[in-house]
Amino acid sequence: GNSVTQMEGPVTLSEEAFLTINCTYTATGYPSLFWYVQYPGEGLQLLLKATKADDKGSNKGFEATYRKETTSFHLEKGSVQVSDSAVYFCALSDSGGTSYGKLTFGQGTILTVHP
Amino acid sequence: NAGVTQTPKFQVLKTGQSMTLQCAQDMNHEYMSWYRQDPGMGLRLIHYSVGAGITDQGEVPNGYNVSRSTTEDFPLRLLSAAPSQTSVYFCASSRSGVPSPLHFGNGTRLTVT
Fold it and tell me: What per-residue confidence (pLDDT) applies to B1?
């Protein structure tokens, strides 16, 4: 079955530091890949997505590239801010129209950014 | 626009009690789903629905029932609560077709004593 593995946290950075959160996956076919962010007390929000190999998703300064050869979708940001403190989830869905709204999530990585 | 609305936000139950977690969406999404979030385990799918009258089990369905009588509503029922069901529950919805992003509610924090 499908699975997603994220780097273990928590991750603590100073403001303006470079961020990488690793994500690797196991899936058959060509899944779509997502990063979601969860701020305290809220539900998850889509941060970015990529639907095919070599696609780069980007949003709010975050980027991730769909690497099929390494089955990875690492999240990066060049300069983090205190407001980026949150929990980040990597996720995948089956390819094509068969996802039915079902995602497989990684365990989440807690990011704390200090001023 | 409201998006996905979950009620209640917090709930405490005693072992053996039953309750229903409510979920409603106003985006006319075909797909709806329930996830539970536990520390270190990410989110796990409980049940999902691809349209009114159609539901199916996810990864962790035991102890939970669902029904979908309308497009908008997708309640989750705990028939006899157990401490292992202490968790944060999220409802989500999305469009059909090519994988679309999920829209999540703000969650229900459930404690079973």
Answer: 65
Q: Which tokens is B49 given?
A: 């629905």
| DSSP structure string for A30-58 | --EEEEEEE-TTS-EEEEEEE-STT-EEE
Rounded to a whole number of angstroms, the distance from the CA of A67 to the nearest CA of chain B is 18
Percent of chain A with pLDDT over 70: 96
In this structure, are residues A21 and A6 in contact, taking their beta carbons and an 8 Å threshold? yes
Asked if B3 reaches chain A (Cβ–Cβ under 8 Å), the answer is no
Query: What pLDDT sits at residue A24?
Result: 97
Beta pairing, strands A11-14 & A109-114: parallel
Residue in A30, A37, A66, A100 to test binding to B, most B beta-carbons within 10 Å: A100
Those residues with Cβ within 8 angstroms of residue B62's Cβ, 6 or more apart along the chain or in another chain? none
